[in-house]
């Protein structure tokens, strides 16, 4: 634990230096751009200078170009980057809405956000005028960027995570040559994750690559529900399907609306449904494991019911003694109680920890 703390302190210190160096670099780059020094060195643009002379990838060059331009307009952006409050990948989004007039209120809204979260803020501040709600099905043959956008899309698809694809972001002022480079750089991954583009505060455009089989099932569901839900949209059908899945998962977790009677001779590690329900509600369906920082984990992934005082040590399956924990933290808790030796001997790997033990 002590070694881990020392290593962590070292990482934190290195990270501060990384942020500070990045901030200093971008402030200097803004000054370099202001003087048009790239032109003096014979480059066509700041982007070309970054890519050709400093050998940055196109994506890295684009992020830094946008940041340097924004810093010239709003110097506070340089401080925010240097202090690590603003992430370089979200700067492209911030640059769409932050101005010399509004930065004091708008810039802080981007602090600590990922690019995807930043896109949501932009969509809220600058809603898409008349967001398209059509469903478009197009065969996937050519570059995924074309398909993902669909013929009716007015919003260019952007890679959601930094480094996933080409230089992201295109300020309205961005030159067309740089946009072309962005497109060229888009690779052709076989498994492209679904893309979500925020359009307004609560509307998202969802790009999804599906199989023919999926479309057939969708059509079959449409037909099957043509009487019960005539004219249901694809979104409504899919949402209804998801509701069914969630209902099923909730039942499995003991969240059924009507509790069954608790069996009188329940096994001691069995958690009664009413306890599960109360625990689930109290913990808000999130892992309650407390991290060294004092925050709770909060994960909603692979949740399990964890006995705070283990059943093996006499802990009861009561609301007070049961909490929600994600699988990883359930294992960590068990290792803390029983020790690594015991766990390795009796529960090697711990990959298949039953959902009700803890
Ligand atoms: Zn957790």
Widest beta sheet: strand line-up: 1-2
What's the structural domain tally?
3
Any idea what the shape is? flat
The end-to-end span amounts to 22 Å
Your description of this structure?
Helices cover 47% and strands 5% of the residues. The two termini are 22 Å apart. The protein contains 14 helices and 4 strands. The protein has 3 domains: 183 residues, no CATH class; 41 residues, no CATH class; 74 residues. The C terminus is likely disordered. The longest helix is centred in the first third of the chain and has 33 residues. The protein has 358 residues and is mostly helical. It has a two-stranded antiparallel sheet with strand order 1-2. A two-stranded antiparallel sheet has the order 3-4. α1 packs antiparallel against α5 and α3 packs across α4. Zinc ion (ZN) binds next to β4 and α14.
Would you spell out the secondary-structure blueprint of this structure?
Elements: H1 2-34, H2 37-40, H3 46-53, H4 58-73, H5 76-82, H6 91-97, H7 103-106, H8 115-125, H9 144-149, H10 176-184, E1 195-198, E2 204-207, H11 212-224, H12 234-252, H13 273-282, E3 303-307, E4 322-326, H14 327-346
Antiparallel strand pairs: 1-2, 3-4
In short:
By secondary structure, this protein is mainly alpha-helical. The chain has 14 helices and four strands.
Distinctive features:
358 residues, mainly alpha, 3 domains, two-stranded antiparallel ribbon, two-stranded antiparallel sheet, 14 helices, 4 strands, disordered C terminus, binds zinc ion
């Amino acid at each position: 634990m002590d070694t881990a703390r020392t290593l962590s302190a070292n990482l934190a210190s290195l990270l501060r230096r990384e942020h500070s160096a990045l901030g200093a670099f971008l402030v200097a780059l803004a000054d370099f751009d202001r003087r048009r020094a790239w032109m003096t060195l014979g480059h066509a643009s700041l982007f070309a200078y970054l890519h050709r002379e400093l050998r940055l990838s196109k994506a890295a060059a684009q992020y830094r170009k946008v940041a340097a331009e924004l810093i010239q307009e709003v110097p506070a952006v340089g401080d925010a980057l240097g202090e690590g409050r603003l992430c370089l990948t979200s700067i492209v989004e911030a640059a769409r809405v932050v101005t010399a007039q509004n930065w004091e209120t708008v810039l802080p809204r981007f602090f600590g956000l990922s690019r995807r979260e930043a896109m949501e803020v932009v969509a809220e501040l600058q809603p898409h005028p008349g967001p398209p709600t059509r469903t478009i099905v197009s065969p996937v043959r050519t570059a995924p960027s074309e398909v993902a956008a669909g013929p009716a899309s007015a919003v260019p698809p952007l890679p959601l995570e930094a480094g996933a694809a080409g230089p992201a972001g295109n300020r309205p002022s961005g030159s067309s040559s740089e946009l072309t480079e962005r497109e060229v750089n888009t690779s052709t991954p076989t498994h492209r994750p679904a893309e979500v583009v925020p359009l307004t505060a609560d509307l998202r455009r969802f790009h999804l690559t599906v199989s023919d089989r999926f479309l057939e099932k969708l059509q079959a569901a449409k037909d099957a529900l043509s009487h019960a839900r005539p004219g249901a949209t694809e979104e409504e059908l899919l949402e209804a399907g998801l509701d069914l899945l969630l209902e099923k998962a909730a039942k499995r977790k003991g969240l059924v609306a009507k509790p069954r009677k608790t069996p009188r001779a329940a096994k001691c590690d069995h958690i009664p449904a009413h306890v599960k329900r109360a625990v689930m509600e109290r913990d808000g369906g999130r892992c309650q494991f407390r991290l060294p920082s004092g925050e709770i984990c909060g994960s909603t992934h692979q949740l399990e019911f964890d006995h705070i005082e283990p059943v093996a040590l006499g802990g009861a399956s009561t609301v007070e003694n049961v909490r929600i924990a994600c699988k990883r933290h359930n294992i960590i808790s068990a290792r803390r109680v029983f020790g690594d030796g015991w766990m390795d001997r009796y529960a090697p790997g711990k990959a298949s920890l039953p959902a009700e033990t803890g």
